[in-house]
């Protein structure tokens, strides 16, 4: 089955601490993975995707096919990173399956 | 630039009443269009997607239906709402061609439906 698992509903850290939001996937084909973010009172938007191999707002994510993971990481969390984060997997032609999301709370 | 509009933003409807949520995209042609439902603890569930006028794919059996009467218009409907239809509905679009922006979804602001 094609599935995305985000095991943590809530992740609470202090400002300046490292952050890792976990994402595991199940897919028989070649995976294409994304992270989307929803800040308070804003629309859900793309944060980054694995094919771009980019760092956005200090966040990076590496696709690990052996562990079927695409964890989102940031070395030093900022208060403005507080948001809801969704991991997504392309499962077919232009179709995305999302995980249940992790709420990141960064405290001062 | 491309924009996506959803309305109404908030809707309170009695059980058994009909539903119509509308989504339109501007600034692009032949987009792929999607309806998702966002529920706490359940993430985003893909309900319908469309790759062209009149072409609708349903992902889950449910009380809802979708239509695409025009290239950039996507409508989510129900003839008789159930309590379980309450939720936050998101419309999204993506480019239909390949390339850098393939599979990247742009979301609308959402429509919150409460069925009483």
Polypeptide structure, described:
Chain A has 108 residues and is an all-beta fold. Chain A is 0% helix and 46% strand. In chain A, a hairpin with a 6-residue loop joins strand 5 (33-38) and strand 6 (45-49). With 116 residues, chain B is an all-beta fold. In chain B, 0% of the residues lie in helices and 57% in strands. Chain B has no helices and eleven strands. In chain B, the strands form two sheets. In chain B, strands 2, 4, 5, 6, 9, 10 and 11 form a seven-stranded mixed β-sheet that branches. A four-stranded antiparallel β-sheet of chain B has the order 1-3-8-7, with no helix packed on it. The A-B interface holds A 6, 9, 32, 34, 36, 43-46, 49, 86, 90, 93-101 and B 32, 36, 41-46, 49, 51, 90, 94, 96, 102-110.
List its traits.
heterodimer, A: 108 residues, mainly beta, 6-stranded mixed β-sheet, 3-stranded antiparallel β-sheet, B: 116 residues, 7-stranded mixed β-sheet, 4-stranded antiparallel β-sheet, 11 strands, 0% helix
Structural class of chain A: mainly beta
Radius of gyration of chain B: 14 Å
> Strand portion of chain B, in percent?
over 45%
Largest interface: A-B, 21 and 22 residues
Oligomer: heterodimer
Strand and helix layout:
The complex is a heterodimer of chains A (108) and B (116).
Chain A: E1 3-5, E2 10-14, E3 19-21, E4 24-26, E5 33-38, E6 45-49, E7 60-61, E8 72-74, E9 83-92, E10 95-98, E11 102-107
Parallel strand pairs in A: 2-11
Antiparallel strand pairs in A: 1-4, 3-8, 5-6, 5-9, 7-8, 9-10, 9-11
Chain B: E1 3-7, E2 10-13, E3 19-26, E4 32-39, E5 43-52, E6 55-58, E7 65-70, E8 73-78, E9 87-94, E10 106-107, E11 111-115
Parallel strand pairs in B: 2-11
Antiparallel strand pairs in B: 1-3, 3-8, 4-5, 4-9, 5-6, 7-8, 9-10, 9-11
Brief synopsis:
The complex is a heterodimer of chains A (108) and B (116). Chain A is an all-beta fold and 108 residues long.
């Amino acid at each position: 089955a094609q599935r995305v698992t985000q095991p943590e509903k809530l992740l609470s850290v202090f400002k300046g601490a490292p952050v890792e939001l976990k994402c595991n996937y199940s897919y028989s084909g070649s995976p294409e993975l994304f992270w989307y973010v929803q800040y308070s009172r804003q629309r859900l938007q793309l944060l980054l995707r694995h094919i771009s191999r980019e760092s956005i707002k200090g966040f990076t994510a590496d696709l690990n096919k052996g562990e079927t993971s695409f964890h989102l990481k940031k070395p030093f969390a900022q208060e403005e990173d507080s948001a809801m984060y969704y991991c997504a997997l392309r499962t077919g032609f232009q179709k995305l399956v999302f995980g249940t999301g992790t709420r990141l709370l960064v405290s001062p | 630039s491309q924009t996506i509009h959803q309305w109404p933003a908030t809707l309170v409807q009695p059980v058994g009443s009909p539903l119509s949520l509308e989504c339109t995209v501007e600034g692009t042609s032949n987009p792929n269009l999607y309806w998702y439902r966002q529920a706490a603890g359940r993430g985003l569930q893909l309900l319908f997607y469309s790759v062209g006028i009149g072409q609708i794919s349903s992902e889950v059996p449910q009380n809802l239906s979708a239509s695409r009467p025009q290239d950039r218009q996507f409508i989510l409907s129900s003839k008789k709402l159930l309590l379980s239809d309450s939720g936050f509905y998101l419309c999204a679009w993506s480019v239909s061609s390949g390339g850098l922006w393939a599979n990247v979804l742009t979301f609308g602001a959402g429509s919150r439906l409460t069925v009483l």
